[in-house]
From TrEMBL:
The lineage of its organism: Eukaryota, Viridiplantae, Streptophyta, Embryophyta, Tracheophyta. Residues 29-99 form the RNase H type-1 domain. Pfam families: RVT_3. InterPro entries: RNase_H-like, RNase_H-like_dom_plant, RNaseH-like_sf, RNaseH_domain, RNaseH_sf. It comes from the Eukaryota. This is Ribonuclease H protein. GO terms for molecular function: nucleic acid binding; RNA-DNA hybrid ribonuclease activity.
Amino acid sequence: MGFKFCQQVPRAPSIVRWRAPSPSWFKLNTDGSSLGNPGLAGAAGIVRDSAGHVHLAYQFALGTGTSVLAELTIIWRGMELALTHGLAPLVVEVDATTLLVEDVQHVFREANGAADHLAKEAASLQLTWVLHHDDITGVLHGILCLDRQGVPHLRRG
């Protein structure tokens, strides 16, 4: 019995950032999180306009589940909430490449920081919230301000 060791070739770091949707469009960024996969799951999303202003942010505790279940659930709930609040037409971005289908765009986690922050918080604290613009404070507010300013993030290989 032998062992074969393969050296993993590191990828070069790259710069990524959140990109605004086209004028008169809204963008839904979502993220699902499972602490253990399966484990405690949570998911979140944020809907912003072409100026980067938040119209809706939400997070859901999902109990025990997988990251794929969390990702799919939050896309569905996000689209439902966006349509309920008249936030259309809508572009959807996710950071899970396993879910890519037509009209759903991939975005690196580093450029999806706001949804990532809310999803991890929803999973770890088992929170369910729907936030409106005036409810957003603290770390989330800071992440959204950096996104709106187009501040780039380093993506490590």
